[in-house]
């Protein structure tokens, strides 16, 4: 014997379109967050690799750009539904805030006693770093704007919609 269901309500009592609609969104958010964590690990690997084998301008400027790239990936760890451009603005803004914070001398004092603080906050303000942060974020914003939504990582279309064309 089968029981009839009333329109909009399943036998479990849940309103159709309520919890069922949230599951794909939750799965997409989990997938985005996981991809962002993988990106953070990969960026850290590249940054520490360059730091170990290079010196001078390559180490300095790539480190600055990769710090910004790491910040961009970090935005997606915290806010997986962020649109790419908005995430880019948040990441560059964060990097600039940290850079200008260096003018206070607090990061220099912390960096003198902690290698982690030196890596996270830097020690000395540099206008060149201010210019390099968008260089580390810009290509990633562009890449995510070009990735089809079916991969679940593009923020300019809702997940589950087919790309145009």
Automatic annotation (TrEMBL):
Keywords: Membrane, Transmembrane, Transmembrane helix. It comes from the Bacteria. The chain crosses the membrane at residues 34-53, 65-82, 89-110, 130-147. This is DUF2809 domain-containing protein. It comes from Actinoplanes nipponensis.
């Amino acid at each position: 014997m089968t029981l009839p269901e009333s329109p909009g309500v399943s036998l479990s009592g849940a309103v159709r379109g309520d919890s069922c609609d949230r599951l794909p969104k939750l799965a997409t958010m989990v997938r985005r967050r996981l991809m962002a964590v993988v990106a953070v690990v990969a960026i850290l690997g590249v940054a520490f690799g360059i730091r170990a084998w290079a010196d001078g301008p390559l180490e300095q400027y790539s480190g600055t750009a990769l710090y910004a790239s790491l910040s961009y990936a970090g935005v997606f760890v915290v806010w997986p539904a962020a649109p790419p451009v908005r995430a880019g603005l948040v990441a560059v803004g964060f990097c600039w805030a940290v850079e200008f914070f260096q003018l206070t001398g607090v990061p220099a004092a912390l960096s003198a006693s902690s290698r982690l603080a030196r890596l996270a906050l830097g020690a000395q303000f540099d206008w060149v770093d201010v210019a390099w942060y968008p260089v580390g974020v810009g290509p990633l914003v562009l890449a995510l704007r070009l990735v089809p939504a079916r991969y679940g990582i593009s923020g300019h279309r809702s997940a589950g919609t087919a790309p145009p064309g």
